[in-house]
Amino acid sequence: MTFGSxxxxxxxxxxxxxxxxxxxxxxxxxxxxxxxxxxxxGRGRPRYLxxxxxxxxxxxxxxxxxxxxxxxxxxxxxxxSLRGDVQMIxxxxxxxxxxxxxxxxxxxxxxx
Length: 112
What we know:
Blueprint: H1 6-15, H2 20-42, H3 51-68, H4 78-93, H5 97-110
């Protein structure tokens, strides 16, 4: 799919994470990667920065294949997907997961 802006892409991105389990696997992988990266920086071990993409994508991509039964949006839109992941995780941490589920359901209903 092609999109003219991130704002057009966002509902699609959320729809590719329509199942709560997929979103929570993303959150867990990203936060674990961030924690290890921060730990590594704090301990003077910059190689730990590799934990962020390894754990983030390492958890997220299998969730797409096994839970969501789709391909990660990252494959077609890497920069917007990274931005979407950050926005999605921020919303989840703010207790707005139900809003994400609604956005996903609406996009899927309108685009099937």
